[in-house]
Amino acid sequence: MSTQEKTLEDVSLKEDVLKQNEIILYNDDVNTFDHVIETLMYACDHTPEQAEQCSIIVHYKGKCTVKTGVYDDLKPRCSMLLEAGLSAEII
């Protein structure tokens, strides 16, 4: 019985180490759908379909997770979104 408990503890510790961050894109009244789509394709390596779906979600829900990964990969991508005039943050 104690072996089973130890295994569960090990799994929990590994999950904490592999924590993923997210780039959240927020809606605004300034940028066009085309601009958002093109920027997501460039900055986040989205396909045209992914970028379009994210832009629609952002428009109707107010925000959308557009990329997940390790912080060091997301930071330059988020900077590209911000430089393009979009509202985004890493959480």
TrEMBL record:
Example GO biological process: protein catabolic process
Domain of life: Bacteria
Domain Adaptor protein ClpS core: residue ranges: 21-83
Protein name: Adaptor protein ClpS core domain-containing protein
